[in-house]
Amino acid sequence: MKLYCLSGHPTLPCNVLKFKSTTIMLDCGLDTSSALYFLPLPLVHSPRLSKLPGWVSKDGTVNLEKELKECAGRVFVDTQPEFCLPERELLDLSTVDVILISNYHCMMALPYITEHTGFSGTVYATEPTFQIGRLLMEELVTFMERVPKAQSATCWKNKEIQRMLPGPLKDAVDVWSWKRCYNMQEVNSALSKVQLVGYSQKVELFGAVQVTPLSSGYSLGSSNWIIQSHYEKVSYVSGSSLLTTHPQPMDQSSLKNSDVLILTGLTQIPTANPDGMLGEFCSNLAMTIRAGGNVLVPCYSSGVIYDLLECLYQFMDSANLGTTPFYFISPVANSSLEFSQIFAEWLCQNKQSKVYLPEPPFPHAELIQTNKLKHYPSIHGEFSSEFRQPCVVFTGHPSLRFGDVVHFMELWGKSSLNTIIFTEPDFSYLDALAPYQPLAMKCVYCPIDTRLNFHQVSKFLKEVQPLHVVCPEQYTQPPPSQSHRADLMLELQPPPMAYRRCSVLGLPFRRRYERIHLLPELAKSLVPSEIKPGVSVATVSAVLQSKDNKHVLQPVPKPVPVPPSKKRKRLMEEVPDLLSPKPLLSGAVPLEAFLASLHKSGITEVKVEETADGHILHLQAEDALIQLEEDATHIVCDNNEPLRTALRDLVLRFLQKL
Amino acid sequence: MESNCSSLLSAVCEVLPNPKLLLPDDTSLEKLLDWFKDLINHNDGQYIKHYQPCLLEFLHTMTKSEAVDSTVFSFTLKLTGLLASKEDSFNWLQERGVLLHMFDPDSWHEIELWKNASVRGGWLQGLWNMLQYQQAVGFFCKTGLIKLLLSLQNDESFFLSSLTNQILVHVLNLVTLPVLSSSIESDAQTRPPVSTDCRSVTAEVMSHVTRSLSSEEQAAVASGLRLLAVTVEQCRDPVKGQLWEHALEPLEVLVNLHDDSLNLSVMAVLQAAAKSPFFTNPEYKVETLIDAMLYSKNTNESLQCAALILQVDSCPDHLKKKATDVVVRPLLCVTASSTIVQDGCDSLLANQLSQKASCVPLLTQSLSSIADFVFKNSLDDVPIRSITSSVIQLLKMCIGHQPSTFLRTAASHVIGCCKIQKYSLDVLQSLADSKESVDFLQEALTVLLLYLQCPDTHATVFKKTYQAVLKWLGVSSSSPTVLETISHDLYPLLKKLVCDGRWEVRDSTLEFIMQLTAAFKGNPEYNEAFRNSGMISVLLISLSDGESYVQASAVSALGEALTDTPLCASFQEEAVTHLLSILSKDAESFPRRAVMKVFTSWLKSPLSFTGLDNHLSSVLSLGSSDFDWEVKVQTLEIVDMLMDNSLSCSRSSQGRESMKQPLHRLMGLGLFDLLLKCLFDCDRPVSQKACALLIKLRSVLRETDSSEHSDDLTLDISSCSWGEEVLQRFHRKQQPEEWSSVKNGAPDSLKKIHLCEILELLELEDMQCILSLSSDHVINSPRSVMEDILSAAQQSELNVVDCY
């Protein structure tokens, strides 16, 4: 069993598991943090961004004026942002049989994998994952296609040139594998390969293994997966949460007793407690609004935003924010808000029960009804006429490189009354803000990451007790910025196996058993004999049939009586000759009793020699040797067949026959 | 009333022995007992005359009745003891065998009664009531009741066993009284010498203690230790010493046993011994025993012992020093950096600190003891410096800000631990008073601000942090760095925290702002910084908070901020408008109460509040018609102040003539109408206060010239709620016989009555007297209690008839 690690990002994993005869890809996350090296894509013409100077090396030898622009003391690539894909050279992706998706954030690289690699398998995901994943992909494509940039920049990627570049650009790795965003057609084609599954539904893969999604509590439809055969169980834990937010709670008990547990998707901000951050979010928001400023919340269009809206719904009255408008701007804003209300069966119990009442599960419906929350596909059109300040705007993309958020950064960045509150933990907020400097706007960083923290995960692992744990190497040491926090790492016995991008791990367990079915008529013919209390054995002679990774023992066909016609003759030839097998012996020869029986048979002169494995008996008068060992007995006597037979019979008296 | 009581009492005494009687409630018999106790203790002649024969007869009846209710029987036992506390009744009871019957359970008709805890409790109470003088003690000793009493010392009910301990101490003190020192020698001579019975009682108690301490049963040991602790603490000297000598041997065994469950009891004994004079006597080995506990292998035990030693004032310094070391060790050990070799941190302690289950309790105990002795300032050579820096480090560790320490695992136990945070903040707060605090000021403020910034800080921790911040800001309140910290770091944080989602945080933040303003009162730089910080508008916004507690705190904070701070009139005006709207519209009472308090403090303030003066009459009318009695009382407080200001001022300065104008002004404010309305208010505190103010007003008016009482002071009673009441009194006094004729309508001439006349009409002193009685004085009177019992007795008879 092997694990191929195609992504080094702990929360955007992409691993391939070879188990029995199947090749299973676990998630295909897309690392979009590479977008931070690129200039923002403004929706409205920005004089500031269009007038940036091009980059020329100090000595003037390298001139990349067209590709690189200097902005706020840093150099950015001036083309459509590119993303860091999972590794595609480590193994032939066309051999992947299935892809299991655990949540909508972890499927964003799907089109890169399923298209143009020869992939011909199936993708399994739950319905909300599929639907919301589609929304996020559509949104991403729209963001990119709305601001087309014809030229692509590749010169800077040249190793020699990259080495000379300033700042973070110089240290970017694997830049050649970065790719531009896919298009709508590729998204549709990729999603057509998705097969929907429900929690706890068992899916057979070629009869060899069974895969089952379990609720992971992180987002709508998010799942962990169990991959098991009859005797082996591998658990794959990706973004999971034990907090009571909107999704169904995490199913922990089904993950018990795994041979291997692959652990990914822990919280990215282990020092920030989501509740505290939510409080921080609300108080900063209220403080800004009270002072007459606007609040900008760069966020994804699904996920934490539902919780933020719910929290604000409760907070608004106590903080006197009753009249402040909230705007949610995204090409998929409407669908996202409405989808969340219809996935009743995927919600937590509390919200599920609301489905039977005349009120929607999420309070954002009420916010919309009362006109407190308004949603628009983009800043163009209706929004511009209805826009009222001070207000709160939720919009993407959290990287601040594309999407409507770019416009608000340009619009509000100059006033210290306004505040930008970062809630998504995926991007470094300082890097995200780099091209907007100098910025007068207040910045607040309250990353809300509801995924498991180290404390919860160590409790969880104690509970489910896997034999081996595999995890990204980042989890085996404290975060670099807080090297003194021994509590922010996994400390397990035995220590977890760590992986990084491009690792290939041989998983530390060997398959020892395979299940084989006995047909009833064959079972009936067996004669078990008890070799010790509770253990009976029988010999089986049968034909083993293997088909679709299932093995069946069938009775040996009886030799057909003499064929009446020629037609039968061919069949006769295929039937193997049935030789009744020799009986199998079991038991041990007790030395004292054996000597006594030799004595009884008239063999008196026996010299016993002790060896490492047993005893050697010298029958001096007969000039013969009997070697008694734990698993073998040898009788050595030259050309004295009667003696050998007699001795053999004596030995056999002490043994059982099967 | 009292004459009727005796007939009631005899009726009650007749029904009480009936076992089928259902008492109205559990407390009625207790109330009766309280009444008797009052009568007996005040040696009221009435009692002797009216009630004693009947009660004695009742007791006599009870000795004869075979079936009795346990509650009534318990009452009887207590009453017997109470009556026997006076010698004449004692003799009467003894002669008729009542005493012996009551206190000897073997002679009861129903021996099962003893199993009832309330009966045993009654027996103990009765005994205690009785044992007031030598004759009763003699009776106690002679009848061998000590055996029964000692058996209750280990009673399953903790209340009974502790009551027994108290009685035993009382008995020991009584039986050993004659051999006391010279001060009462003359008295002792008149007493009979200590009888052999009494001596045997002392001996019994001592052997009981020894027996209990060496018992196999833990419950017996524990109760023995409790008795020992109480006797060592409360008994007189010879008997105390003797007891200790008896108990010493088994006690030594117990101390060296280091049994966790007995620890606290052993500690209590040692603490009592440490406070007693024989602490210094080496024969009594108190110090040896304490040493054994202090250096026990059980860290918890040694910490508890150390904490106990530090509580004893008279403890010698060397022992205190040892104890301090033990107390401080866990704190120093957990915060020790890896580079410093910790000699104090032995492997045992380190091991316990590495385990979560023991780490948190150890640290909290250490911290609470430190906070205690730092607060009491009980030792001069306490290492205050290292404690301060350790506590600051520990606080940083708790929020994950401290780099690696000697004990890495311990660090992970304390991260996010609210309990340790709270205790550490307590210590830090008390350290602000130390001499060395100035050197740590910046560091302490930094860590406290970190706590205010940290989004995970628990609401209760916030509260403690604020208290500590306030204390530390006071260390050097005039220093420019402190003021800079306040305006640059603290104000922005406070602005955010008043927007917090948790109301507790908003509430404590506003409270803190109020305390901060109060603490820096009169500091011009602070006032300047406060004015420029925009905090006032933050407070004004908080006035409309959704949570009433928070609103109330915002009101108080705003009030404090505007009280001695000269601010522009527009701010004042805005604030008054806001507060008035809360007073008139708010549904919850806390903000309204706060508003009235603020108005009061503004009126008291030397700065003039022109903004408020124009609104005084609406404040008074809103306040007096409020639903909440506290608001009304507060309104009367304002009235009091207004009266004081205008009347006393003019009386002292310009003589009698000038009373006219101030009275006229008060009349204009509707103040007299308000007072009379409040006098007849349904809430007692309101009427009480109004009554006191009216008496005050009356005395002022009596002093002034009657010619000054112009017609302006005439009140139109027909339109007032209190008019009817006054009218009734008027007629009752004037023409009682004509009263009936005018009952249905006041003639025109009576529509207006002069204020002075009204005040003379109302019998204010009588009213005040009635109002001063508690509101339940009627239902708790003995008459009412007995009537209840009697009606219950009738009811239970009726019920029997109803059912069959």
What characteristics describe this protein?
A: 658 residues; alpha/beta; Metallo-beta-lactamase, Chain A; 4 domains; B: 804 residues; mainly alpha; two-stranded antiparallel ribbon; 2 strands
If you had to describe this structure to a student in words, what would you say it looks like?
The complex is a heterodimer of chains A (658) and B (804). With 658 residues, chain A is α/β, with parallel strands linked by helices. Chain A folds into 4 domains: 2-41 and 80-148 and 157-267 and 451-506, 4-Layer Sandwich (Metallo-beta-lactamase, Chain A), CATH 3.60.15; 42-79, no CATH class; 274-445, Rossmann fold (3-Layer(aba) Sandwich), CATH 3.40.50; 585-657, TATA-Binding Protein (2-Layer Sandwich). In chain A, strands 11-9-8-3-2-1-25 form a 7-stranded mixed beta sheet. In chain A, strands 12-13-14-15-16-23-24 form a 7-stranded mixed beta sheet, with no helix packed on it. A 6-stranded parallel beta sheet of chain A has the order 19-18-20-17-21-22, sandwiched between helices. In chain A, strand 34 (624-629) and strand 35 form a beta hairpin. Chain A is elongated and about 115 Å long. With 804 residues, chain B is mainly alpha-helical. Among the domains of chain B are: 27-130, no CATH class; 317-454, no CATH class; 477-604, Leucine-rich Repeat Variant (Alpha Horseshoe); 773-804. A two-stranded antiparallel sheet of chain B has the order 1-2. The radius of gyration of chain B is 35 Å and the shape is flat. The two termini of chain B are 38 Å apart. Chain A binds chain B through residues 271-273, 275-280, 282-287, 290, 311, 315, 317-320, 446, 482, 484-487, and chain B through 400, 402-404, 408-409, 411-412, 415, 454-457, 495-497, 499-503, 538, 541, 544-547. Chain A: Its main location: cytoplasm. Chain A: One of its GO terms (biological process) is RNA polymerase II transcription initiation surveillance. Chain A: InterPro entries: Beta_Casp (IPR022712), Integrator_9su (IPR027074), IntS9-like_C (IPR048660), Metallo-B-lactamas (IPR001279), RibonucZ/Hydroxyglut_hydro (IPR036866).
